[in-house]
Each structure stands twice: as C-alpha cells, then as structure tokens.
Amino acid sequence: MSVETALGTTGQSASRIIEGRWADWSADHPALAPIPPNRAQEWLRATSPEDSNEVLRVIARMASETGGDDLQAAELLAWILMPAARRVAVEVANLIRDEPIDHIVAAQLWIEIRTFHWKTNAMVSGCIRRNLRKHVLTECGAIVPDVMSRRTVLLDDPDEFDLLEAPPEAPGPVADQLAVLLALGVRAGTIQDAHRVLLEEMLDAAYAHPSRKRALNPLLAVADLVAMRRGVTGRQVRRLSRRALDALARDAEVLLDGLGRIA
After folding, report:
1. Integer CA distances (angstroms), 198 to 44, 101, 102, 168, in order
2. Domain that holds residue 220
3. Whether residues 82 and 173 fall in one domain
4. Residue 113 is assigned to a structural domain of this protein
C-alpha cells in the first residue's frame, strides 16, 4: 500500500483533470493562463516553489470547501503534493509502528486540502506539509498529551508574534526526532507553535548551509539568512530563537523523557 494508492490519485487521473478543466480554470484565473495544459504537470513538478506558489494558491483556493469547493481541483492538488505526503509517511513510519500510516496520511492530506486557509500568505506546499505531519503525528498518538503542566508563555508582544508566524519559504530536511521534540515542547507549553516553525526553518537552513560541509554550522549562525527570507532583522531572529532554545533546555529532561516514551 502507498499514500497514492490509498487516496486513489494517479498521474493518469491528474492528466484527465488537466485536459478537461485547465482551459476553463485558466479563463477564470489569469495566473494559470501562461501554462499550456499539455505541459501543466511537467511545469508544476519541475519549477521552483516560488514560481509555482501562485499557481498552487489558485488551485488550493478552488479545492477548498470555502473557496471553489471543486473536488477535481482537490484531486489535482493532492497529486501535486504527493511527493511531500510520501515523505511525511516515511517520517512517521520511522517513529510509529503498527499503524496504517499510508491510509492515515492519505485521509489527512485530503482534509488539509479541503480545509486549507487559502487567504494566508504562507507557501502552499510548505504549509500543507507542516500541518499534515503535525496532524498525522497527533492522530497516531505521537504527541504526549500530558508531558508536564502548562508553563509560562514566552512572548506577549504582538509584533513578535507577527514575525514568528511568517512561514518558511519551503520545507527542508528537519530530523524526525527533532521535529517530534519541538512538537512536544509546544504541547507542554515550553514553547509556542510559532517558535517551533521558526526553529524548524533555522534547522533546515543550518542543514543546507555550505559551511556544514566543513564543520557543524551553529544554529544561530543562520539567523541572518532566515531573517532575510522573512524580511526582518537577524537580531530579532536570534533573540526569539535563543529564548525558545533556552526554554527547551530548561525543560529538556522532561521533554526527552516524553520523546523516549513515543520513539
């Protein structure tokens, strides 16, 4: 079994949808018009996340229940996002045993697509992938419900929340256990979900940074790179991420105990 099989979405079905609907969609949505229908699949899979995001946002809006409520648009978006869904299935399967992971991922992917908040400025593929992973882990019981009592909220400045809620440009190779540890930190109240998103983006940037080829790249060393992507200052990113890291270090013993119970 695979996620693709569980969902019933294939390249052939995607081709039929494009052939039958793309011309009408393009007439209503100018962003789709420059892409020839006979090359839509190739273009969507091959182009960069930045270039494809505008097109994906149009499809996501049509697919959402609160947008166009178009089931064929939802099926096409599911096919486009299938590589990300398969990665999530592999990540979760490495953490959770004896669960029908492919079926759970397929069902949750459909829910994420149909309930996607298309008015957000977040990158479509990255946002759906993050929510998919988080909700699948929760569904599988990977988030310990009562690791510890709720702790003091780290931030109370609305401007800082605006910074933290800015999404990363694209998903990256965040380690499975680190992702679960950060999720545990959110569940425990050690950090907030916006902190988790920021730290995951910094982990991705540190992993991909060229200096990693020579030596371990310190996490805070990529603050300026992440800040540039978000349109804020490196000082802001360093301050907020350091505060979150300090809180995680403070509760490390309890969080690592929780991680051990679900590994």
Report:
1. 27, 27, 28, 8
2. 158-262
3. no
4. yes
pLDDT tens, position by position, 159-206: 444 444 444 444 444 456 677 788 888 888 888 888 888 888 887 777
The residues, ordered by sequence, that sit 6+ positions from 183 with a Cβ below 8 Å of its Cβ are 134, 137, 142, 143, 196
Nearest to 130 by CA among 72, 198, 71: 198
Structure tokens at 161: 């929340």
Residues of the chain with pLDDT under 50: 143-174, 210-217, 262-263
